[in-house]
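Q: Hi! First time doing this. I have a protein sequence and I read that you can turn it into a structure. Is that right? Here it is:
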Amino acid sequence: MKDPVCGMDISAVKFRSIYKGKEYIFCSESCKRKFEGDYNKYAR
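A: Yes, that's right. Below is the predicted 3D structure, encoded as C-alpha cells:
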C-alpha cells in the first residue's frame, strides 16, 4: 500500500480515513490531515 499524500510504502496500518466508502491508509497523522483537508487533491 502507498500513502496517497506522500507516496510512501506502508506496511502497517496506523492512520486511516474513509472517503466516499473507500478506506485510505497513511504513514503519519500529518498526511492524514492533509488528505482530509483536500480530498479532491488526493483521493483516486
